[in-house]
Amino acid sequence: MGLKTMTKLHNGVEIPSVGLGVYKVEEGEQVYESVKSALEIGYRHIDTASFYQNEEGVGRAVKDSGIPREEIFITTKVWNNEQGFTETLEAFNRSLTKLGTDYIDLYLIHWPVPNKYKDTWRALEKVYRDGQARAIGVSNFLTHHLDDLLRDAEIKPMINQIEHHPKLAQIETRKFCRDQGIIVEAWSPIGKGTYLDEPLLCELAETYGKTAAQIILRWHYQNGTVIIPKSTRASRQRENAAIFDFELSGTDMERIDGLDQDYRLGAHPDHFNYG
Predict the structure, then answer these.
(1) Residue 161 has what pLDDT?
(2) Which residues bind substrate per the record (predicted)?
(3) Would you list the domain boundaries of the chain?
């Protein structure tokens, strides 16, 4: 158990259930040190994106760690202005170069750009078939996007990475993904820390001898959701990883479910400014 706990994707590839997100972590020393400390703690799953502009620092930290490349699961994503079939293949190769690797463990469409994401998906299917990506998926796709994509897709997405935390339960999207065998991965899994003083979470933290953040992350884990909490501090990275030595009761899981308010911190995929 622990950071070596894996979730199996529908193609048989296993992804570490807990990873490190690096959104808004600055390229250079900050992202390098963040990834370095996470790998030292035991993380083996790093989630970045071309949009984050820190792939080079991630790649350097992975290389300098001395850990065999095949033991580290790297996710990156194609940004909105890079989408389309040819453009995505070019973006994928740029990411490979910046990360200093010859394959990506998981490559995602970052957002469902209207009239583009189907061509983008064909490019992802190509890099998957060519063995350059071990798994492919999408991010910020709602049920209707997935339904539309699946009409023409030859390969079903293995993951849908969405904003998801107790106040944004995403019940419909999660059910659709579960029915299709698509694993849900949560970005902003603790809601950017905006409601850690929620009375229920504080009560449960005291009951279980954990922090409110750990209660939320454990709730995700017990729901079968892959999580990528972001932290640049080693102490917080350790805290976010310490969720495997307790179990929430079914009643407490349901009480956390009751916090849902359809409360988004990020953009709604149907109202995103796609430019």
Answers:
(1) 98
(2) 110
(3) 6-192+216-242
